[in-house]
C-alpha cells in the first residue's frame, strides 16, 4: 500500500510525459476511468481517416489511406498469366504486404517484420472469403486453340501494400487501402499480337483488343474491418501502436457492406473475450463500415468528376 | 531519337536548363526521429531517419564517432513493370552506399560517439534521378531529426544528349545511353561531396554539364532552406515561442 501511495505522490510531481513513459498502463487507466483516451478520443471512436485514390501514377490502380498516423500505400499492377488447369476461366489476385524499415523504429533492415506475412495472409483470406471480386471477370481468352502462345489467358492482380507509417491498426488500414485500390483499378485493354502474345493496346495501334476497352472491376459486397482492444471491461476501438503495446488483447472483426460477418480474429491475449464484448465490437464495426463506405464512395465520385 | 526539338524543347516540354517541378514535405512518418517526402517531377521518394540511437550490433560500435547506416529500397510498383526483387540487388546496394558516403560527409559524427544513425529511403515512384531525390530527401529528414550537419547536401543530375547539356534527366533521357552526371554539393561551403558519371564525355563538355548540375543543386538548396524555415516557423507557432 505504502508503495502505491509513494508512486502516486511521485506521479503528481513528475511531468506528464515522464509519468507516461514510466507507468504507461496506469497513465492509460487513469484516462479510461474518465471514458477518454490520451489523444482525446472517446473509447469507441476511430481516428480520423482519409482515402486518396490514384496516388501512384505508374500503377493500374492505387490508393493512399491514413488512419490517424498509420499510413498505407497500395498499388496494383496487372499482369497477363496462364490460368491454372483447375480454374481455366479465372484470373488471380496476389497480395503482398510490406513493412519497410521507414515505417517504425522496431522494423530493422535484413529480417522482415513479424507482422508482414501475418497481415498478408489475413488480407488474402479476407478478400477471397468476402467474394468481393469475381475472378472470372479477369479472364481474357478461354480455350481458343487458334491462339498459339496462350490457349487461355487471364489477368493476375499483383497488389503491393506498403506501410509507410506504423501507428497501430495495421490490418484495418491495409484492408481499406487494398479495397480502395481495387475500386480505383482500371483493367487495361489488351490485344493479341502476331506472335500470339498478349500485349497492352496503345491508342494508335490498329490492334483489335481482346477485352474491349479499359474498364473497372465490379466489386460486390466490400469488406471493412475494425480492430478493438479489450482491457478489463473497456473496449477501445482503433488502437494506436502505443495502446497496442500496453494492452495485449486485440479483436479484429471484418464485416462487409451488406452486414455479413466475414472474419473474426482474436490472437490470444490475457483478457477473456466474452460473447457480449465481441457483440459490442461487432456493433462498433458495423458503424465503422458505414463510415468507411461513405468515405470510399465520396472519393470514387470525386475521381469520376475529375475524369 | 530526338531528345531536344529544333525549338529547344525536351520530350516533356522542358527547356534544356529547366528542372522538373520539385515538392517537399517534412514529418511524413510520425514514429521516425526525422522524415521527409521529396518529389522531382514523377520521381517520389520518402526518407526516414532513426537516431542517434544505441548501436544494434555492439561489434560495430565506434567510440570516436557515430555509425551511419543507410538502406535504399524501391517499391515493387515504382517502375513501369512490377519489380520482382526490390531489395538486395547490386544497384540498390550501390545506391545505399553512395547515399551513406554522401551523408557521412556532412554529418558531424564526432559529436555523437557510440551511437547509430539509420537513414532509410524508399522510392515510391521512379522516373529518373532517384539517387538525387534520395539524397535531397535524406538531407531534409536529417535536418528534421535535428542531427548536426556541416551543411545541407543537395543533389541533381545533368546529361548531354543531341549535343545539348540537359539538367535533371527523366527516365527516358537517363536510359538514352548518353552521359549522365550525378552531383552532390555542400552549397554554403561550395564543396562537391558526390560526383558520378556514366558513359563517355569530352572533358571540355564535362565542365559545362557539371556547372549546370551545380546550378540545379543550388536551386534545390534554396528550396530546401525555404521548406526548413517554414517548418521551423510552424514549430515555433505550435509551441507558442
TrEMBL record, chain A:
GO cellular component, as recorded: cytoplasmic exosome (RNase complex); nuclear exosome (RNase complex); nucleolus
The keyword Oxidoreductase is annotated on this UniProt entry: no
Superkingdom of source: Eukaryota
UniProt GO molecular function: mRNA 3'-UTR AU-rich region binding
Residue ranges occupied by any Exoribonuclease phosphorolytic domain in the UniProt entry: 46-188, 222-271
Keywords: Cytoplasm, Exosome, Nucleus, RNA-binding, rRNA processing
GO terms for biological process, alphabetical: exonucleolytic trimming to generate mature 3'-end of 5.8S rRNA from tricistronic rRNA transcript (SSU-rRNA, 5.8S rRNA, LSU-rRNA); nuclear mRNA surveillance; nuclear polyadenylation-dependent rRNA catabolic process; rRNA catabolic process; TRAMP-dependent tRNA surveillance pathway; U1 snRNA 3'-end processing; U4 snRNA 3'-end processing; U5 snRNA 3'-end processing
InterPro entries reported for this sequence: ExoRNase_PH_dom1, ExoRNase_PH_dom2, ExoRNase_PH_dom2_sf, Exosome_comp_Rrp42_subfam, PNPase/RNase_PH_dom_sf, Ribosomal_Su5_D2-typ_SF, Rrp43
Family: Belongs to the RNase PH family.
Protein name stated in the entry: Ribosomal RNA-processing protein 43
Encoding gene (name): LOC100812232
Automatic annotation (TrEMBL), chain B:
Domain of life: Eukaryota
Subcellular location: Cytoplasm; Nucleus, Nucleolus
Record keywords: Cytoplasm, Exosome
A GO term from the CC aspect: nucleolus
InterPro entries: ExoRNase_PH_dom1, ExoRNase_PH_dom2, ExoRNase_PH_dom2_sf, PNPase/RNase_PH_dom_sf, Ribosomal_Su5_D2-typ_SF, RNase_PH
Domain annotation Exoribonuclease phosphorolytic: ranges: 18-148, 151-216
Coiled-coil positions: none
MF terms (GO), sorted A to Z: RNA binding
GO biological process: nuclear mRNA surveillance; poly(A)-dependent snoRNA 3'-end processing; rRNA catabolic process; U4 snRNA 3'-end processing
Family in the record: Belongs to the RNase PH family.
Annotated protein name in UniProt: Exosome complex component RRP41-like isoform A
Organism: Glycine soja
Taxonomic lineage of the native organism: Eukaryota, Viridiplantae, Streptophyta, Embryophyta, Tracheophyta
